[in-house]
Amino acid sequence: MINPTVLSGDLATACGFHHDLRMGCPLPEELEVDVTAADISRGKPCVADECAVALAVKRTLHEHDIKYVAVTVTDRDVHVIQAWAGPARWYAHDAADLVKAFDDLDAIEPRTVSLVKVAR
Questions:
Q1: What does residue 44 show for φ and ψ, rounded to 5 degrees?
Q2: pLDDT tens track of the chain, all 120 residues?
Q3: Residue 54 has what DSSP assignment?
Q4: How many of the other CB atoms lie within 10 Å of CB of 63?
Q5: 2-25 burial by CB neighbour count: b if 16+ within 10 A, else e?
Q6: Given this model, what pLDDT does residue 14 score?
Q7: Of 5, 64, 86, 117, which one's alpha carbon is 20 to 30 angstroms from that of 21?
């Protein structure tokens, strides 16, 4: 975890920008997420906010000081909400086969998943 540094009342965070401490860093346009063996073993099949990919996304956001209130995963995209009163952000991902296999209780291996922000 990278510790933010306070400079002249602003917050210099892990992303290098100065912004409100309550929001953490803004969501990036693209994100690489490592789905680990621990995510796979702790994940719950057919539970959009607790599957292996969702756990990996949550961990990665936390590691980059990006605050969120909800993360859900479908076979096509990842939905991230940073604040209940704020807009939702959608990411396309390249892991449809991994999500389907996990939900079908098939064996899956750890891998990196690429997320790309899409307009909705």
A1: -115, 115
A2: 333 333 333 444 556 655 555 556 788 999 999 999 999 999 999 999 999 999 999 999 999 888 899 999 999 999 999 988 878 899 999 999 999 999 999 999 999 999 999 987
A3: H
A4: 11
A5: eebeeeeeebebebeeeeeeebbb
A6: 57
A7: 117
Torsion of CA 88, 91, 97, 99, to 10 degrees: -30
Residue in the structure block whose two tokens are 């961990």: 59
Give every CB contact of residue 89 below 8 A, 6+ residues apart in sequence. 27, 79, 80, 81, 82, 117
Q: Which conformational region is residue 50 in: left (phi greater than 0), alpha (psi within -120 to 50 degrees), or beta?
A: alpha
State both tokens at 78.
């990842």
Task: Say how far apart CA 83 and CA 87 lie, in whole Å.
Answer: 8
